[in-house]
Please model this.
Amino acid sequence: DAKTTQPPSMDCAEGRAANLPCNHSTISGNEYVYWYRQIHSQGPQYIIHGLKNNETNEMASLIITEDRKSSTLILPHATLRDTAVYYCIVRVTDSWGKLQFGAGTQVVVTP
Amino acid sequence: DSGVTQTPKHLITATGQRVTLRCSPRSGDLSVYWYQQSLDQGLQFLIHYYNGEERAKGNILERFSAQQFPDLHSELNLSSLELGDSALYFCASSPYGTGHDEAFFGQGTRLTVV
Model:
């Protein structure tokens, strides 16, 4: 599976949009981009995933560049409860798809 | 609540002992994954079962073994425990286990080896 690169940390003000970047320059055509988050030692929580089109759900939006080499997770109105480690993962669609977690981005939402 | 249940939540045991961690997947999910999270290693994939059969192995030690039963619950057995095995152990489940279904994680079992 392709590797991902994320900034180790970022801060965001409560109520503002949080834009979390992820680089996956070696992504293959059959790999999805997944985002999970982990709130302080709880089990990781699924956020969103996509292949090449932008995706939106009740939690977030995922913007994938046209060349698919990078993506951005957008939390539209960050709250204090969004403080967590966010993981960007690429995952092969046709295999028995284990999730390989990297170090992620520690996001701290401040009042 | 993800629908994935892990028991026990906490476990303290001595070096050299053996423990069993249990995972009940979400209703209808056929795949179960096990992960280990220690302070210095992050989330490490251990093993994946689909409908009772092993499908993928990660960084799982030979002292560790797992199985998935006909009712789809899974157990992770850890033997000859060492201090370094202290970690959070997470189980996740998904409907199929292919690359484009969502995996839902339980709240983990915190294992402390003393």
Q: What stands out?
A: The interface with chain A takes residues 2, 4, 33, 35, 42-45, 48, 50, 55-56, 58, 88, 90, 92, 97-108 of chain B (CB under 8 Å). The CA atoms of residues 57 and 63 of chain B lie 14 Å apart.
